[in-house]
Structure formats: C-alpha cells, structure tokens
Specification:
The chain is α/β, with parallel strands linked by helices and 278 residues long. It has twelve helices and nine strands. Helix 3 links the parallel strand 2 and strand 3. The termini are far apart. The structure holds S-adenosylmethionine. The site of S-adenosylmethionine has 22 residues, from strand 1, helix 3 and strand 3.
C-alpha cells in the first residue's frame, strides 16, 4: 500500500492490464513523490477544481488529491483506465469526476464552475494543440487561474524562450502575451514507464488579467506567422505579405527593419498587430 491506502501504481497497471500505448502518448509516472512535487508546482489546490488531462492509471490524480485538491475532473480517452480510476474515486468519495472523452473535444467553459486550475502530464502527441486551445478561447481572462503542464523539454523551452533564444518562436509569443510563463524543473526520462526518448519539463503558466499591448489575438498570430514563416529573412521582407511597405510601419515603432523575427520582443509583435488593426 502507498500512503493513500491505494495499491502501488506498478500493481495497478498489472491488475488492470494497462500496457502503455504509444498511439495515446502513454508514458506513466509511478513515483508518488514525483507526482506530488508536480502537484505542488501548481500552488494552492484547496478551493480549486483541478482539471487533469490523461490521468492514465492515476499517479498524478492521486497526488493532486493527497495534496488537497478540493475536486479533480480527470479527462481520459483510454477506457481501459476507468476501473483503476474508479478505485481512486472510492478512496476519495465525491472528489474525483472522470470524463471518458478526447480532451481536444471538451467544451471546458460549460463544464467547469468556479475557481479552476489545469494540471497535467500531457500526452505528447496533442500537448501543443491543447495548450494553444487553452490560450485562444473566446473570452479572456479564461476559466482557469493557472496551467501546470508537463511537455517534452524542447516544447517547454519554446514556451518560455525570450527574444534572441534559439527556441524563441510563435509558441513563445502566444504563451507569453497571454501568460506569465515559467519553466520549473526537468523530469528525467527514466522516471517514466516506458521511458520516452527525451527529457520532459514542467511549465507553469499564469494568465495575465489583461494582455498588453492590447492587440487582437488573430492579428498577432498573423504577424508572427509571417515573421517566423521566413525566420531567416529580415522583417522588411518577411512582413511584406502583411504590410505593403513594412519599413513605414517598423521605423515609427522603433523596430529596425533589418531585424529578424527571432530578435523581436513579444511587446513589439503585439504593437505591430495593433497597427494592422488600424
Ligand atoms: N497522468 C498519467 C501519469 O502521469 O502517469 C499518464 C500520463 S500519459 C503521458 C498521457 C495520458 O493521456 C494517457 O493516459 C493517455 O491515455 C491520455 N490521452 C491521450 N490522448 C488523450 C486525449 N486526446 N484526451 C484525453 N486523454 C488522452
């Protein structure tokens, strides 16, 4: 038995025949000390509904409940995991809701009521799509007060990268215009069963109440797509598809037209998007 009175995760996997499926991005964490550390990275859990994507056999789910989450709503696509998750529900009556669905299809705003946070060891094949979906809702501020997510390290670096870093790109700009983004700690591949090919990292994102400068998100995405679509080109040429005369826009904003997109700050991209709106 583990501290929560439930069987060790290795045993859960064996009992329920949960051989990991690559097609579902299944790499499981068995060490409750590690999953509790991830749960704590989300800050205060009491008083919050925690949305977890892909609970699998429940290592992180159990950690979230042990660390005090008022309620966990866990969205899992693989129905083979449901009996294992039912055992956790029985151990924490009324505190765990399991939704057997594809997280990409869930209409979050309709199912989540009250303060909520998202905490997940994401399936790698849909991790970026899920993040972009959470960062581009119709309403802002969004329904969640933070995102604490495990990604492949390379994706985590892209999310938190600053202008001039190798990993800086469209995902950095969208993430940081919307949120305060911090890469927290790495998780070695050996912590997973089966081990993935690369290191993973936890990223913590806190939505900004107001995204500054206040451009339209679609226009920001249009500008960054143009800039990074031809990232080796200078802005005066890569932005030609967006502005007929890029130099006439860049110079008044104090942005050197010979700069490349990878050197332009999030704020400057947002200011360019504001010009596009006028
Ligand atoms: N949370 C568990 C852990 O940390 O050990 C499992 C994490 S594993 C990396 C990803 C989980 O997401 C798997 O259980 C997988 O079945 C589930 N999953 C994959 N695609 C999904 C989707 N589109 N919607 C919901 N769950 C999904």
């Amino acid at each position: 038995m583990d501290d929560d009175g439930l069987p060790p995760l290795r045993e859960v996997i064996a009992t329920h025949g949960l051989a990991a499926r690559k097609s579902l991005g299944q790499n499981f964490l068995f060490d409750l000390n590690l999953t509790r550390r991830i749960a704590r990275a989300a800050g205060k859990l009491e008083g919050y509904t925690i949305v977890e994507i892909g609970p699998g056999p429940g290592g992180l789910t159990r950690a979230l409940l042990m660390e005090g989450a008022t309620k966990v709503i866990a969205v899992e696509r693989d129905e083979r995991t449901l009996p294992a998750l039912a055992e956790i529900q029985a151990a924490y009556p009324g505190r765990l809701e399991v939704i057997n669905a594809d997280a990409l299809e869930v209409d979050w705003a309709t199912i989540i009521k009250g303060p909520a946070k998202i905490v997940a060891n994401l399936p790698y094949n849909v991790a970026t799509a899920l993040l972009v979906g959470w960062l581009t809702p119709k309403e802002w501020p969004p329904w969640f007060s933070s995102l604490t997510l495990m990604f492949q390290k390379e994706v985590a670096m892209r999310i938190a990268a600053k202008a001039g870093d190798d990993a800086y790109g469209r995902l950095s700009i969208l993430s940081q215009w919307r949120c305060e983004a911090t890469k927290m700690f790495d998780v070695n591949r050996s912590a997973f069963t089966p081990p993935p090919k690369i290191t993973s990292s936890i990223v913590h994102l806190v939505p900004r109440a107001v995204c500054e400068p206040p451009c339209k998100m679609e226009l920001l995405e249009r500008i960054t797509a143009a800039g990074f679509g031809q990232r080796r080109k200078m802005l005066r040429s890569s932005l030609k598809g967006v502005f007929p005369n890029p130099e006439a826009v860049l110079e008044p904003l104090g942005i050197d037209p010979t700069t490349r997109a990878e050197q332009v700050s999030v704020a400057d991209f947002a200011r360019l998007a504001m010009v596009l709106d006028t």
